Amino acid sequence: MTEILTPTSDNSSEIIPVHPAIDGYMRALVGSTDHPVLLEMEALAEQKRFPIVNRLVGIFLEMQARMIGARQVFEFGSGYGYSAYWFARAVGQDGRIICSDGNSENRDRAEQYLSSAGLWDRIEFNVGMAQDIFVQTDGLFDICYNDVDKGWYPEVWKLARDRIRPGGLYIADNVLWHGRVAAETYTDIALGWTEAIVEHNQMIFNDPEFDAFINPTRDGVIVARRKVV
Ligand SMILES: C[S@@+](CC[C@H](N)C(=O)[O-])C[C@H]1O[C@@H](n2cnc3c(N)ncnc32)[C@H](O)[C@@H]1O
Description:
GO terms for molecular function: O-methyltransferase activity; S-adenosylmethionine-dependent methyltransferase activity. The chain is an alpha/beta fold. It has helices at residues 20-29, 36-48, 55-67, 82-91, 104-116, 130-135, 153-161, 193-206, and strands at 72-76, 96-101, 123-127, 141-146, 164-173, 210-215, 221-226. The termini are far apart. S-adenosylmethionine binds next to helix 4 and strand 2.
């Protein structure tokens, strides 16, 4: 697995989807979501330049989960639990978030943070390759959330799509990849990642069993809903 840092060093071709003033306006509206644990997790991301989804995307994830009454969520690439924090709030006491990450330090941090937030009992955190953990886990999911290294995106979509219940959601972060998906020329942070994201997005929009849309907030979040036939 590649340790990704926030891709700012090669941003000569970066296209920012949402104007920073609009982003700031939206962020100011959601100040009431502050929680001491969230602030700590966000401070750590800033300090280590660790790519968590941000507050706006977190709120969006929680809302998506609440809108479909999600109880079972699988996360590919959980980091230290920031995105899981939002899903865990949505699924309620009987819900379950299966987290996966290749780094055991992230698991330990997630336990510390999500315990402090009173959400750890909704989490099953597995360390290892997310795709392997997924195929070893039975059942259908209300939501499969993808945030692994971007070269894996097509593979994760192919694995996940068949395991989403009708009316359930596939959600993936970074699908605009700092605008590279729409740039004529770009420098990638890892060979082939932009091409993988482009292929991933195209497959989803071409899939007759799903309806899809990209929310351009932060780095682009795709939401694809399995049709109910
Ligand atoms: C972008 S971060 C996840 C951030 C997290 N979803 C959040 O918003 O709080 C990606 C994480 O996925 C992990 N990772 C990348 N590829 C992976 C894979 N194939 N299997 C398991 N973990 C992976 C990395 O170790 C890293 O912690």
